[in-house]
Amino acid sequence: MARVKISVSQFQRKPSSHGIQEVTAKYLAYLETAGRRPSTLKRYRPELDRFERFFAERGVRVLEDATLDMVDSYATERRSKSVAAATLYHEITLLRQLANFSASRALISQNPLRGYKMKKPKPQTQPCFSEQQLERIIDTAAEPFNVIYLVLAYSGLRIGELKWLRWKDVDFDRNVIIVREKEGWQPKTGEGREVPMLPRVREALSSLPRKSKWVFTAPASRQYPRGDHQISERRALSRLKTILKRLDIPEGHLHTFRHYFISMCATGGTSPTTIMEWVGHGSLDMVLRYFHLSHDESQEAMSRLTQAIENKQENRRQGQNEDNSVL
Fold first, then answer.
1. What is the distance of C-alpha 284 from the center of its chain?
2. From its phi and psi, is residue 252 left (phi > 0), alpha (psi between -120 and 50) or beta?
3. CB of 263 within 8 A of CB of 292?
4. Phi, psi of 124 (to 5 degrees)
5. What does the CA dihedral 14, 16, 22, 25 come to, rounded to 10 degrees?
6. pLDDT value at 11 more than 60
7. Radius of gyration for the alpha carbons in the chain, expressed in angstroms and rounded
8. What are 195's strand-pairing partners?
9. C-alpha span between 249 and 241 (Å, rounded)
10. pLDDT tens-digit map of 152-197
11. What are 190's strand-pairing partners?
């Protein structure tokens, strides 16, 4: 009697593959359950929709039917549209996470992106305002944007943190700004923190009218005639761009104020761990990415070092002269 060789794998039930649209919905639901920030999910949705359209145009409806060549084609197409290297790296990372999730939940029978690697791009040099540029920006800006830019520059707050700042988050008795979660919003890292107020920040906040629970409110409009609603991040950026063009400052954005604060703290002698605590960064590497040393500050630091060396040499010479006089 002939023997029939049967592998164990023939009895193993392979998972049924789900469509890209379905696994995407499940992945987003998982991220929401895992506590991802609403703004993160809002950013992911159009990116995942783009993946679905890209693969559908190539006849791929199930994620496991995608190939590494297709992923390469996606990257090439995005580069042709002048997408930044960091943005493309983020998109491919998201696609890999989607594939890993789908495979781990048996939504696909195999991971089509297993082994796919993409070199992480080096961080691009970001602009940083000089002290003179900052003062010109604040002087030029109209209310309430002049105070907004001042507080951003001298507190290190993110624009989202400033937008969601309530009066109950400003403790004048303890001289701190409290960044904490509230209904509809949470800090970027998910953790709260306290930021001590510089005198200039305290004075600026004290001068603001308290016509709403929000510290910073947008001007009155037809939709909000009382002018008691939150500021618009887009409008704050638009006003800044207009001012930069008027002042002939080549580049900058709302996050540039945060770069200024971190650089000011570092050159002022604040310890890196304290800066990390104030700005809500989880690593020293991130703080270093934000640090900018201006030419004048560099020259001043070298002058201090030169003076210290000369003082040390002079003390050594005086010590030798004293020894010789004894002999």
1. 14
2. left
3. yes
4. -80, 150
5. -40
6. no
7. 28
8. 177
9. 9
10. 999 999 999 999 999 999 999 999 999 999 888 888 877 889 999 9
11. none
| Tokens read off for 289 | 């990415």
Q: Which domains does the chain have, with CATH numbers?
A: 14-104 (1.10.150.130), 131-295 (1.10.443.10)
Name the token pair of 128.
Answer: 């940083």
Q: With the C-alpha atoms ordered 53, 58, 63, 67, is the resulting torsion angle positive or negative?
A: negative
d(CA 143, CA 209): 12
How many whole angstroms separate alpha carbon 272 and alpha carbon 155?
Answer: 15
- The bridge status of strand 170-171 relative to strand 176-179 is antiparallel
Nearest alpha-carbon partner for 116 in 94, 149, 146, 84? 94
Distance CA 9, CA 168 (A): 63
pLDDT tens digits, residue range 277-327?
Answer: 898 876 666 555 655 555 565 566 566 667 776 787 778 777 666 656 655
d(C-alpha 90, C-alpha 87), whole Å: 5
Spatial CB neighbours of 267, under 8 Å, sequence gap ≥ 6? 293, 297
Alpha-carbon distances of 30 from 24, 33, 89, 234, rounded to whole Å: 10, 5, 22, 30
Residue 226: is it exposed, middle or buried by C-beta count within 10 angstroms (0-12/13-18/19+)?
A: exposed
Is the pLDDT confidence value at 262 over 70?
yes
Structure tokens at 188: 């970027």
- H or E element at residue 177: strand 176-179
Residue with tokens 């040390």: 312
